[in-house]
Amino acid sequence: MSFRNVLSVLGGFLIILGATMLLPLGCSLLYGEEDAAAFLLSFAVTCGSGALLFFCFRPKEKQGILTHREGFLIVSMGWISAALFGSLPFMIQGVLPSFADAFFETMSGFTTTGATVIRNIDPLPRGILLWRALAHWLGGMGIIILAVAILPFLGVGGRQLFKAEVPGPVKDKLTPRIVETARALWITYIILTIAEFVFLLLGGMDVFDSLCHAFATMATGGFSTKDASVGFYNSAYIDAVITIFMAAAGMNFTLHYCLLTGDIRTFYRDPELRFYLGVIFSATLIVTLDLRLHIFQTLGEAFRYGVFHVVSIITTTGFATDNFAKWPALSQVILLLLMFVGGSQGSTGGAIKCIRILLIFKQTYKELYRLVHPHALVRVKLGQQVVSPDTMQGVWGFFALYLGLAALATLFMSSLGLDMLTSFSSVAATLGNVGPGLGLVHPATTYADVPVAGKWILSFCMLVGRLELYTVIVLLVPEFWKK
């Protein structure tokens, strides 16, 4: 493994990250906010550090491809670097003077978790608010993919970065070249973001709030510009728009690309999409009826709040229009389970992902069928495609590792003196990149009261969850560092 390659690519990555700080800097100057100096200094430090790494460690000869180990290390270190340098505006401006809090907030942004430690969001400068939303948007499709799409001059191949950034049981390849695939995904991402921005403007949101919420929605992030989140607007129209685009963000973006290119048949025949929509429909039905019986006076009200939060949680967005910690136990349990399900493969959502849950169901049914028909030859199929035993083994391995990490992190959190509900839901919400949980971290509060050690544990959960476990966990294997 060439550490020279790794440091050089990370340098180019930091240059991109620093350049993105120009957008909130421009916003601060436009509105005359006090945080312009913080972003100017952060821009200089980030780009300067990136340029130093890029030019000092740039390989003397152009490298054709990265090795798999270099790809894993670059992606993991890229996200950690984003959290480190992205926390500078919060610390310089004094919004979050504690490094642990600033790192937690930034990691939450780039991993599209949406868990916050800021108690009062409303009075924050617009530059800081835009930076939180922009961190979501960049992290949603993946800054590494952005680098692969627009920075071929780095001199290293992008396939290993793409694989490490977009892990999953089934790989979707839109175009023969990785760079073209990354560009196609980003174009689709931008089109959907612009569409939501326009629809929110039509609903009465101002330009700034529309932009921030469009960024956070398409990234399935959840950072809002208001303390009351989307509930601040008290608008059925805005709720509906954000619900629709959250659901779209939780779908496989290759399907959106198929729609944009006229391939409607592939969109409607996708088995994971049908499962994803089926889970949303079933969960919405149960939650709506539960809310109608115990809280809301009309079925329309119950449906409005029920479908919003079901979609918000399964897509791991984390927006809220009501405090679901006060909902009936059945609805809370449904939402807690959805934190583990997550969105589709190839979406900006987190958690286990629908395709893995679907394959586990199919495998379980196959085993039950074999008990009844022991001599039958039954294969797990996804649509018309037979799923290989190796793929199923990977799915079960991921599932076991995910639950094991959730259990271990819950034990660590409970050892810090937190109650069981807070410990478990905070881990589920951060490992799944959801954001709000239950107990002390419900939607009407923040993670500010979590002990410092707990914030570091949850930051690790966010990182591992965003990169789907293996990309980070593999760095802890001793063989990874051996020649």
Would you mind describing this structure in some detail?
- 65% of the residues lie in helices and 1% in strands.
- The protein has helices at residues 3-20, 22-31, 36-56, 68-86, 88-93, 99-110, 126-141, 143-150, 159-165, 178-202, 207-218, 236-249, 253-260, 264-269, 271-294, 299-314, 329-341, 354-372, 389-415, 420-431, 452-466, 470-473, and strands at 381-382, 385-386.
- The protein has a two-stranded antiparallel sheet.
- Strand 1 and strand 2 (385-386) form a beta hairpin.
- Helix 2 (22-31) packs antiparallel against helix 7 (126-141) and helix 15 packs antiparallel against helix 17 (329-341).
- The longest helix is centred in the C-terminal third of the chain and has 27 residues, at 389-415.
- The N and C termini lie close together (7 Å).
